[in-house]
Amino acid sequence: MSDIVEYWARFGRDEATGQWTHPDDRAVLAGQHSFNLDYPTCPYLGPVTSAKVVILGANGGYSPTATPDEFPDAEAFERYLGRIRDPESADWSNVSPYYDRVNYGPLVYRGDAVWINASPYRSPRISAEPDNQRLVRSLPSSAFIRRWLIDAVVPLAASGERLVVVKRPGLWRLPPEVRTAIGVIVDPAPISPQLTSGPWNAAQDFLTGRGPASGAPTPGPQETAGQTRTTAEQGEVEARRKRLKADTIPAGTPQSQVSPLVRVCDALGLKLIAPEAAWPGYGKVVHLDGERSIYINRTNADVRSSPAEIAAWQRAGLGTARPDNDRYLRVKLLGDQPLNDERSGHTV
Questions:
Q1: What is the model's pTM?
Q2: For residues 44 and 58, what is the distance between their CA atoms, to the nearest angstrom?
Q3: Nearest Cα to Cα of residue 48 among 96, 111, 107
Q4: Highest mean pLDDT range out of 43-52, 215-224, 238-247?
Q5: Which of 45, 250, 303, 317 could bridge across to 329 with cysteines, CB 3.0–4.6 Å?
Q6: Tell me, what's the pLDDT at 298?
Q7: Is residue 264 within 8 Å of residue 278, measured between CB atoms?
C-alpha cells in the first residue's frame, strides 16, 4: 500500500521549466495539453494507505481565481507537499472549499475515505478537454496508479477490508474484471460531483459495519458496528477464495441477489427484465432488456447482444468478443486469475 506514497514523494518543481510535475511524466507533458502546472497538486486526498473507502476520481481541479488563493505563500506550498509525502499524519480537514460542498467531503476530513485521481494534473473540466484525456492515457504516473490499485487495493476489497467506488471509470481504464470485482462499485453518474445514492449508501453501510456492498464478503463476527477490520488472517482470506470458487449461489435465488449477475449488468449498463425472478443457475440463460441475455459461469460471464454492440463494448475495454461467436462478450470474474488489461494485452 505504501508504494504510492513512495512514488509520489518524487513529485516536485522542475527546475528547468518551473512546472510542478512527476519526473516520470515530464517527457509526455511536453506534448499538447492544457493542464495547469503552475501549482502543486495531490494525487490523493486523504490517508491513502489506511482509508477504508477508496474513491476513484478524475484529476486535480483548477480555477484561475480559486487555485491561486489556495497558495498565498511559500508555507501553503510546503503544507500541500507535506500531505503528499506523509498522508497518514496530515490534517485533511481543511483541503479545499470544494470538499465542503460534496457529500463525501466529511469522510475525507475524518480519514474514512481517500479520493484518488487518475491523474493529479490540474484543469478546469477534463470531461470537455479531449487533449488532456488522451494525454492521461500515456502518462507513466497514471499507469503506475492503476497498477497499484489492482495489485494493492483490489485484493483488500475482495477480502472485505476496503470498498472501492469508481467515480470516473473512463479515465481509469480499469479492466472489466476489476469493474465487476467483489468490493468494487461503479457510480452510474460519473460527472456528478456527488456520490450517487447507491455508492453513498454502500459506503455508509461499509463504514458502520451494517453490510458489504456490490457483493463484497459479509463481515466476520469480530466486526461490530462502527468498526472495520484492518487486517485479515491468511487462513481466513484463503477460505474466502475457496468459497468464491464454490457453487455458493443456488439456483432459485432472486436474480437481483446474484452478485456477479448484478455486477456485470451494472458495468455494462444493462437491466434485468425480471429482477425478482428465480435465477436458473450457472450456465443458464437470463434475459435482459433490449433482447439481450447473459450466462453466468464460475469464472466468467457471457453476454449476448448484437455484433455492433459487442464490438463497441470490446473497444471500450469492457470485455472480449468470443472468437467463436461475435454475438457474445466474455467478461472475466475476479478470482485467482491474473488481471489483464484487455486493451494493452499485458498483465497489470
A1: 0.64
A2: 11
A3: 111
A4: 43-52
A5: 303
A6: 79
A7: no
